[in-house]
Amino acid sequence: MRGKLITLEGIDGSGKSTVAEKLKKNPEIKAFNPIFTREPTRGTLTGNAVEKAIQSDTDQLAELFLFTADHAEHLAKLIKPALENGKIVISDRYSDSRYAYQGITLKTHLENPLEWVKDLHRSWTIVPDLTFLFDIRPEISIERCGKRGEQSKFEKLEFLRGVREIFLKLAADDPERFIVIDASHSPEYVEKEVVKKIQEFLSRN
Ligand SMILES: Nc1ncnc2c1ncn2[C@@H]1O[C@H](COP(=O)(O)OP(=O)(O)OP(=O)(O)O)[C@@H](O)[C@H]1O
Ligand SMILES: Cc1cn([C@H]2C[C@H](O)[C@@H](COP(=O)(O)O)O2)c(=O)[nH]c1=O
Predict the structure, then answer these.
(1) What is the pLDDT at residue 205?
(2) Could you tell me the distance, in angstroms and rounded to a whole number, from the CA of residue 1 to the centre of ligand 2?
(3) Is 195 exposed, middle or buried (0-12, 13-18, 19+ CB in 10 A)?
(4) What is the pLDDT of residues 171-195, one digit of tens each?
(5) Structure letter (DSSP) for residue 184
(6) What is the Cα–Cα distance from 88 to 1, expressed in whole angstroms?
(7) Annotation-wise, does 14 bind a ligand?
(8) pLDDT at 153
(9) For the chain, how many structural domains are there in total?
(10) Which of the listed residues 39, 97, 157, 166 should we mutate to test ligand 2's pocket, taking the one with most ligand atoms within 8 A of CB?
């Protein structure tokens, strides 16, 4: 039986990685023996290229192709084999981040970047079975990222406003797949919500 792909999405600082780490230790989630992964991937040729690109003044179109190449490698080497083996895969960021972030960064290059990036993926990507959108106001995101000490070029208020808007549109357009979580709550509250929804989803499918 094919496995299930669950993804965590949201703007910088929305708490995805914090909850992902909690899920890894959560006994109710460990019982499903899931594989945890992320995009951009880490420690791979494509993931390393992405990491360098986002830390420099890379052309936005080049950056999109690097993120997309990393996605292709992620699918081929981890996601597809895991799903074919019936595994549950939980990814901290995935294609919806590309639609939301590059849907904004490519506004200078393309007329309708969101649709163009979605079309670029349509014929070969794997659509997640369930996606959690960690939704917070960009002001909170910036505040949290500030406390975290690192500042990526994407962590800018107006930019994140646009990214959040696309995430919410993606969720509104696909209510069967998306669960929007109010990520302004405590990490414990968010973890509990996510665990409950994953259990409900896996018991139905
Ligand atoms: N629910 C929360 N309430 C308050 N602070 C939080 C919460 N979740 C995470 N944080 C803090 O906010 C910062 C960002 O959290 P985290 O790295 O989990 O976010 P993220 O969504 O993975 O961000 P990015 O996508 O930029 O990696 C961290 O310093 C973390 O400790
Ligand atoms: C997958 C993906 C990510 N991004 C952006 C989002 C973040 O600002 C950075 C790095 O992600 P991390 O979770 O902080 O490690 O990259 C993007 O622009 N496009 C994508 O496809």
Answers:
(1) 86
(2) 31
(3) middle
(4) 999 999 999 999 999 999 999 999 9
(5) T
(6) 11
(7) yes
(8) 79
(9) 1
(10) 97
Q: List Cβ neighbours of 84 (8 Å cut-off, separation of 6 or more).
A: 2, 3
Give the nearest ligand 1 atom to 148 CA: 29
Q: What pLDDT, on the 0 to 100 scale, is given for residue 1? A: 87
CA of 113 relative to ligand 1 center, distance in Å = 28
Identify the H or E element spanning 18: helix 16-25
Q: Is residue 173 a contact partner of residue 114, using CB atoms and an 8 Å limit?
A: no
- 166 is an annotated ligand-binding site residue: no
Is the C-alpha dihedral spanning 80, 82, 86, 91 positive or negative? negative
Residues spanned by the domain of 77: 4-204
Whether pTM > 0.90 for this model: the answer is yes
Which pair of tokens denotes residue 1? 């039986």
Backbone angles phi, psi at 185, to 5 degrees: -75, 180
As a whole number of angstroms, the distance between CA 158 and CA 154 comes to 10
**CATH number where 124 lies:** 3.40.50.300
Give the C-alpha separation, 108 to 106, whole Å.
Answer: 5
Q: Residues of the chain whose pLDDT is less than 50? A: none
